């Protein structure tokens, strides 16, 4: 099977950004006079909810509040999230966040092989723009044929909408593309869209249920950052995942029960 496109998730997949997101949420809460402080373990649980605004709403829904107080706080979610996004993009621009090892290499190997790239993420366009410019330079966005982000679809991951949007915009079927993810919700989304999926977890997602993923690696690896035990465990050629090896491993996947469940649903 040839790979015509790689579809990348962003947070946790391209770069380990979740600590920056967590810090931005906490700063936004403080600026809005709220005594909420999300600790790392709290945030790991909250990451089971995709989307920043949805994450805040989920947190509010779990608080012991009166109906009136809950409604008042829920009305503040858009403003809270807007400030959080502004804080996060500033952190990304100023803090020197780096792509995970192997990501930039794989991007350029894929492009050199004539493969197109796309983003399929539930984060905001502003967050994607800030990260790509900070890590890949001012023309980072130009490397991607399609940028599909959360505000463009009705349902966020684990629904397949964002991947379906990316594939439709590329003009491809799922049999021609590969998804690269770091989370269980992302995997479920890609599976439901019919995509062969590689998962590279981080601290924030390790230990999740990645059942059904075609390949799970601790990262992509690089010549300078080889993966322990490779080649020989999951990789055949080297101790890092090259585009050539990915293409050799990919085979068309049968339609999953998730894909059947979402069949016919519109993005």
Give an overview of the whole structure.
InterPro entries: CbbY-like, HAD-like_sf, HAD-SF_hydro_IA, HAD_sf, PGP-like_dom2. GO terms for molecular function: hydrolase activity. This is HAD-IA family hydrolase. This protein is α/β, with parallel strands linked by helices and 267 residues long. The protein has two domains: 5-16 and 98-262, Rossmann fold (3-Layer(aba) Sandwich); 18-95, DNA polymerase, domain 1. It is 42% helix and 9% strand. It contains eleven helices and six strands. It has helices spanning 18-31, 40-46, 52-61, 67-75, 77-95, 103-112, 125-136, 161-170, 184-192, 243-249, 257-262, and strands at residues 5-8, 116-120, 146-148, 177-181, 196-199, 215-216. The protein has a six-stranded parallel β-sheet with strand order 3-2-1-4-5-6, sandwiched between helices. Helix 9 (184-192) links the parallel strand 4 and strand 5 (196-199). It starts with a strand and ends in a 5-residue tail after the last helix. The mean pLDDT is 94.
Give the mean pLDDT: 94
- N to C succession of SSEs: EHHHHHHEHEHEHEEHH
Architecture (CATH level 2) name of the largest domain: 3-Layer(aba) Sandwich
Overall, the morphology is globular
Sheet with most strands: strand arrangement = 3-2-1-4-5-6
Radius of gyration: 19 Å
Strand content: 5-15%
Characterize the quaternary organization of these chains: single chain
Given the structure, what is the number of helices?
Answer: 11
CATH names the topology of the largest domain as Rossmann fold
Q: How would you characterize the largest beta sheet? A: 6 strands, parallel
For the record, the count of structural domains works out to 2
pLDDT below 50 for ≥5 consecutive residues: which ranges?
Answer: none
Q: Report the structural category.
A: alpha/beta
Q: Output the CATH class name of the largest domain.
A: Alpha Beta
CATH superfamily of the largest domain: HAD superfamily/HAD-like
Helix content: 40-55%
Termini gap: 27 Å
How many runs of DSSP E, i.e. beta strands? 6
Keywords: Hydrolase
Protein name: HAD-IA family hydrolase
InterPro entries: CbbY-like (IPR044999), HAD-like_sf (IPR036412), HAD-SF_hydro_IA (IPR006439), HAD_sf (IPR023214), PGP-like_dom2 (IPR023198)
GO molecular function: hydrolase activity
């Amino acid at each position: 099977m040839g790979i015509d496109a790689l579809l990348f998730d962003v947070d946790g997949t391209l770069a380990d950004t979740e600590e920056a997101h967590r810090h931005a949420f906490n700063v936004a809460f403080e600026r809005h006079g709220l005594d909420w402080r999300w600790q790392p373990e709290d945030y790991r649980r909250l990451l089971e909810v995709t989307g920043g605004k949805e994450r805040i709403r989920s947190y509010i829904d779990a608080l012991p509040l009166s109906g009136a107080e809950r409604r008042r706080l829920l009305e503040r979610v858009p403003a809270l999230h807007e400030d959080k996004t502004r804080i996060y993009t500033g952190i990304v621009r100023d803090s020197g966040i780096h792509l995970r090892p192997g990501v930039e290499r794989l991007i350029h190997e894929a492009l050199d092989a004539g493969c197109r790239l796309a983003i399929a993420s539930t984060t905001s366009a502003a967050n994607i723009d800030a990260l790509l410019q900070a890590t890949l330079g001012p023309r980072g966005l130009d490397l991607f044929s399609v940028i599909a982000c959360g505000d463009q679809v009705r349902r966020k991951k684990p629904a397949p909408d964002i991947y379906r949007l990316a594939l439709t915009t590329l003009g491809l079927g799922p049999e021609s593309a590969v998804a690269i993810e770091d989370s269980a919700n992302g995997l479920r989304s890609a599976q439901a869209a019919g995509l062969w999926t590689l998962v590279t977890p981080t601290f924030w997602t390790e230990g999740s249920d990645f059942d059904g993923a075609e390949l799970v690696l601790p990262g992509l690896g690089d010549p300078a950052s080889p993966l322990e035990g490779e080649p020989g465990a999951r990789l055949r050629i080297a101790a890092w995942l090259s585009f050539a090896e990915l293409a050799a491993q990919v085979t068309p996947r049968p339609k999953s029960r998730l894909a059947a469940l979402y069949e016919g649903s519109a993005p």
